[in-house]
Amino acid sequence: MEKQKIVILGAGYGGIMTSRRLEKLLKNGEADVTLINKHDYHYITTQLHKIGAGTASDRKIAMDINELIDPYKTDFIKGTVSSINIDTQEVHLESGESVPYDYLVVALGFEVETYGIPGIKENAFDIRSFRSSKFIYHHIVKQFSLYKEDHDPSRLTFVVAGGGFTGIEMLGELIESLPKLCKEHEIPYNEVKIMGVEAAPSILPFFGEESAVYTTKFLKKNGVKIMTGAKILECTPDAIHLEDNVKIPTRTLIWSCGVKGNSILQDSGLPLIRTKLQVDPFLRVNHIKNIFSLGDCSLFMKNEKSALPPTAQVALQEASFCAQNIVATIRGEELKTFEYHHKGSVASIGNKAAIGKVGRFTISGLFAAFMKQIIEARYLFMLGGPALIFKQHFIVRNDQVKVSANQ
Ligand SMILES: Cc1cc2nc3c(=O)[nH]c(=O)nc-3n(C[C@H](O)[C@H](O)[C@H](O)COP(=O)(O)OP(=O)(O)OC[C@H]3O[C@@H](n4cnc5c(N)ncnc54)[C@H](O)[C@@H]3O)c2cc1C
Prior knowledge:
Elements: E1 4-9, H1 13-25, E2 31-37, E3 41-43, H2 48-53, H3 58-61, E4 62-64, H4 65-68, E5 74-78, E6 81-85, E7 90-93, E8 98-100, E9 103-106, E10 110-112, H5 120-123, E11 125-126, H6 130-150, E12 157-161, H7 165-185, E13 193-197, H8 209-221, E14 224-227, E15 232-236, E16 239-242, E17 246-249, E18 252-255, E19 259-261, E20 272-273, E21 276-278, E22 291-293, E23 298-299, H9 312-331, E24 345-348, E25 354-358, E26 361-364, H10 365-394
Parallel strand pairs: 1-2, 1-9, 2-5, 9-22, 11-18, 12-13, 12-18, 13-14, 21-23
Antiparallel strand pairs: 3-4, 6-7, 7-8, 10-19, 15-16, 16-17, 20-21, 24-25, 25-26
The chain binds flavin-adenine dinucleotide (FAD).
C-alpha cells in the first residue's frame, strides 16, 4: 500500500499531542506525518495570561516545536495556513506553498469573539496567542512610563472584561505583577486601579457559587473591583462605555469574553456550526472520512443539546482518540467512539491561590494552587516525559521568543 500522508494543522494542545501520539502508534513506513504551525514554538495556551502580565519568562510558556517532536517521524513546517481545498486535498500556506494530504487533522484553535461590540476589535487587547499576550505586557509597561509624564489616571486603570476562567486568571496575574511594576517605576500602588467587568449576574458560573464567593473576596482583598451585571457597549482608545451611561476611563481593556472557531474555516467548504467544524463520534468532520478535527475549532456534541466546552482537557483527550482513529482508518480497522471523561477544572488566581472543582469537591486556596501546578506538570509529562518537566523547571532558557507581525 502507498505511504499515506497525514497533515496536522496547528501545533497547540490538540495538534502537537496528535502528532506525538501518531509517532508512537504508526509503524515504520506506514505514513508520513507533517505538522504545520504559524510559528516554530508551541505555547502553553492555558498560561498565556502569565505572558500578558509578565509573571512568567517566555521560555516557560513557549517551547521549540523541533525539540518536542521526533524529527525522524514528524516533518515540521513553519507556515500560516491560508486555505484548505478539500477537492484537491491540499492545504495552502501564505508563503504560496501547497501541502497535499490523504488525511487531515484540523486543530487550528480559537479566535476571539467580539460579538460585534463597537471598538473591541480595534481598541481592546486579547489573550489569544503568545504574541497578543506579549503585546498586552508591553502595553502595560508603556502605560507606567507615560503615566510618569502626564499623570493621566486612565493609564493606570486596567480592566479585564469577562468573569470566566481566563478573565479571572488574568486578574490574578495582574495583582501579582502590577505592584512590581509600581516599584520599578516608583509609583505608589494605590494609584493603580484593577477592575473585572462581567455582563452576567455572577462570575465563574461553571465553578458554582462557593468558588465565585471565594474568588470575589480574594480579588477584593487584593484591591480588585468586580462589577457584575455590567455590559460593555463600546470601547474607545481611552475609555469603555457601559449601560446606564457609565464611563470608565482606561487605556487597557483586556477582552476575555468568549471564543469562536478559526476564521480560515469559513471558506473551506467544510460543514460549520457556529463557526466551528461539527465532528462525528469518531472526531471526523461530518460526512468526510479523511478529515478529522479537534480542540477549540471543532464542535463535539456530547448530547443532543450541548457541545463539549473549548478546553485544553477536551483537546488533549480528543488528540489521543484522533490519532488512534487515523491509524485505524489507514489499517482498515474499526474506529473508536470518542468519550470525554471530565477530570475536574482548576483556575489560578495568581501564584498562591486557585479555585476548582474536582469530582464532587470544590477546592480553593493554596491546595487548589498546588493542584494547578500538578495539572501543568502533568501536561509537560504527557508532552515530553520527566525530562521536559525537569527542563522547564530547572534549565529553562532565558532568551526571548521572537514574534512576528502575523502571529
Ligand atoms: C489564558 C487562558 C487560560 C486557559 N486556561 C485553561 C485551563 O486552565 N484549563 C483548560 O482546560 N483550558 C484552558 N484554556 C483553554 C485552552 O487553552 C484551549 O481550549 C486549548 O488551547 C485548545 O487547544 P487547541 O489545540 O484547539 O488550540 P490552541 O492551543 O489555541 O492551538 C492552536 C494552534 O494553531 C495555530 N494556528 C492558528 N491559526 C493558524 C494558521 N492559520 N496557520 C497555522 N497555524 C495556526 C496557533 O498558533 C496554535 O499554535 C485557557 C485558555 C486561555 C486563553
